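Suppose you are handed a protein chain with no further information: no name, no annotation, nothing but its sequence. What can you learn? This example shows the usual starting point.
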Amino acid sequence: MLDSKGAKNITTREKIHFKGGFDLLTIIKKGFFGEKTKFEKQVLYNTENGKIEEKATKYISLDGPSNLTVKSSAARKSVFPSTRLGGSIHPAVAEREILENGDVVYTEAYPYR
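A reasonable first move is to predict its three-dimensional structure. Written in structure tokens, the prediction is:
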């Protein structure tokens, strides 16, 4: 689809229901503003309490920087990693930050080539 500026946007969404009360939502967007970029987001919801247990976002640019951020809830009932993006984080490269509420955020960034 083209927007008013002529940018090509391709978006796909997928929602998967798992036994045990979890939903996985995946959103993939490609080709913003004619650039060779991709945005992907995966969110694991606990349907029993309505809370997000894991949220992962990945930005990829073929001509620039790339970034992967995974946030894991402190009080989660699922096992980390539960998303494909969360499982692709490289512990040796990623920075780990523990937030005040106990959530853990992993960030893996690769600079402009």
